[in-house]
Amino acid sequence: MNKNIFSRFGWGSILFIFFSTILSWLLIHLMAIFGIFIVFAYPIWWLITPSGVPSIISNEAPDGSIGPYRMVRRAEGLSPTTFKSAILNALILLLITIFSAGFVYIESKILFKLGFPPTPKTVSFIIPPKGQYRLDEIFLIKIEISGIKVPINAVQADLGFDPQKLQIIDISTIDSFANIFIQKEINNEVGYTRLTGGLPSPGFFADHGIFGTIFFQGKTPGIVKVEFLPSSMVLANDSKGTNVLKDLASISYLILPERISEEEENLQKNISIQSSVLGEKTENTQMIFYEEEGVLGSAVGQEVQTEENLGALKFFLGGLEWINRIILLFWSKIFSLFKGFASFLL
């Protein structure tokens, strides 16, 4: 089929269409930013050199007769014969300029839907400083988020640990900035946990916030590493769901060979049945949709997202967005200038 197209139109025609499209795109963007200057300069050029200004529309025929206004062909080489005709040609250029600016605006909206400009990645998970704990001692790690520069509305916190040295007792959502939770997974066999939740628009916006609290218990002595996994996400409330997570935190803890006393162990057991501490009971404002029996952590290796290598395309689209942003900023300044001038006159 492609061969038939090439044989019918020829490579010359296809290349002509390709380069014509590129030149048209360039012309539209050039008119969008420089067209307004051409509009105001056109009548001035006509006053200085009446015969040197090309005409877009004219009521003059090649034989010199006057008739209705029509589009001028390039081969005719006509120029406006009157100042009125020069103004009409300037208005045609103004319409072309407005159309070009509108095209750039629509193009910028499409690029925005595609994720350009990308929301900057500024968010980090905070893990408490290094510590040491005894065997069977329960200690907590708060899932705290910092570096929030734009509102966020969804978080997926995935953590990995050595199941030979640690186990998770529970995850609490008390004092969380989120009020909707859809996943709470704990898998002490593979050393994995996930907490997923968020909140409706306008989202959460503060310097930092607590998303949840994980209760660990030491099992065997040694150094154990707790780390956020690459499948973790913090999504911005930017209508694109941009992952603004900048980096993944990790920390190592020392589990001492000393075991906690029987009195301390009984105290921990009493604490563990208090739902206000271990998160079995949440605030009335929170909505819980997960089922704790459905542990999916064993499939964590399949859930790590990998980004496709689209560097050249992203570079091109990013440059296009930058050009459009300059053009739209220019028009914003023009409108502000006209608005201020109109307010001055009124």
In short:
With 346 residues, this protein is α+β, with helices and mostly antiparallel strands. The chain is built from six helices and 15 strands.
Give descriptors for this structure.
Immunoglobulin-like, elongated, five-stranded mixed sheet, alpha+beta, eight-stranded mixed sheet, 346 residues, 2 domains, 15 strands, single chain
Total of helices: 6
Annotated CATH topology of the largest domain: Immunoglobulin-like
List unreliable stretches of 5+ residues.
Answer: 275-284, 293-308
Radius of gyration: 33 Å
The biggest beta sheet reads: 8 strands, mixed
Oligomer: single chain
Q: So, CATH architecture of the largest domain?
A: Sandwich
Order of helices and strands: HEEHEEEEEEEEEEEEHHEHH
Count the beta strands: 15
- The coarse silhouette is elongated
Percentage of residues in strands: 25-35%
Helix and strand composition category:
alpha+beta
The level of helicity is 25-40%
Count of all domains: 2
Report on this model:
The protein has 346 residues and is α+β, with helices and mostly antiparallel strands. It folds into 2 domains: 139 residues, no CATH class; 181 residues, Immunoglobulin-like (Sandwich), CATH 2.60.40. The chain contains 6 helices and 15 strands. Strands 4, 6, 8, 9, 11, 12, 14 and 15 form an 8-stranded mixed sheet that branches. The chain has a 5-stranded mixed sheet with strand order 7-10-5-3-13, with no helix packed on it. Helix 1 crosses helix 2 and helix 2 packs across helix 6. The longest helix is centred in the N-terminal third of the chain and has 47 residues. It is elongated, with a radius of gyration of 33 Å. The chain starts with a helix and ends with a helix.
